[in-house]
């Protein structure tokens, strides 16, 4: 930075670059459209897990450059960006960001993040001019028994469509909050690796099941291959004992552990033979 640069900018860059060097994970988030009050709430919710730093995009890029961050990472700084500094892994950081998102009423000009649907049923609205406004906004409303009701389920805006002022006002009156408000993660960098949000969105239960299955398959393979590890040694010893007893039994080796099985088996065979002979003897007598 040149000598003509304001002192506060130098201090800002120095502070940010220091935080970058100290942090295990750096995230770039989009904060566009988030009201100041909700941004403060999000900052508070992240306390102890991540620090949010809002600054000019130019200063953020300079700080990343001074901290030696990969040039590729800087391309994610656009629109209204901010940096996140954290020591938790990228997957956990993404999960926390998603959990902290809230719903908010729509404003004129907002883009529907998904299909916006009004549902059939009564409303809390009183009959009057609002009925005409609802109908003008494309909401199928009518008076039923002195109450304003929605006649049927209807998608009033499809995903990606712009919400006009009248519809935004009517949705607010109906208590519908279609806009998701929260930090929008653009990318993280961890151990020199850049993660985009799509790579961080995993089904935890499915992932846990895969890990368990992989562990079980590995354990089974290790036992079949007689590969001793801390986890398999007990089962291998038990398997070896079982196999040796089985082999000794078949070869009629008179070892104590095997002898009792041979005697037990002989008793069973003798009992079965006696039972069979007794049955044949009774049959011959009857004849």
From TrEMBL:
The keyword Isomerase does not apply. Belongs to the universal ribosomal protein uL10 family. Forms part of the ribosomal stalk, playing a central role in the interaction of the ribosome with GTP-bound translation factors. It comes from the Archaea. Pfam families: Ribosomal_L10, RL10P_insert. One of its GO terms (cellular component) is cytosolic large ribosomal subunit. This is Large ribosomal subunit protein uL10. Residues 106-176 form the Large ribosomal subunit protein uL10-like insertion domain. Part of the 50S ribosomal subunit. Forms part of the ribosomal stalk which helps the ribosome interact with GTP-bound translation factors. Forms a heptameric L10(L12)2(L12)2(L12)2 complex, where L10 forms an elongated spine to which the L12 dimers bind in a sequential fashion. Coiled coil: none annotated.
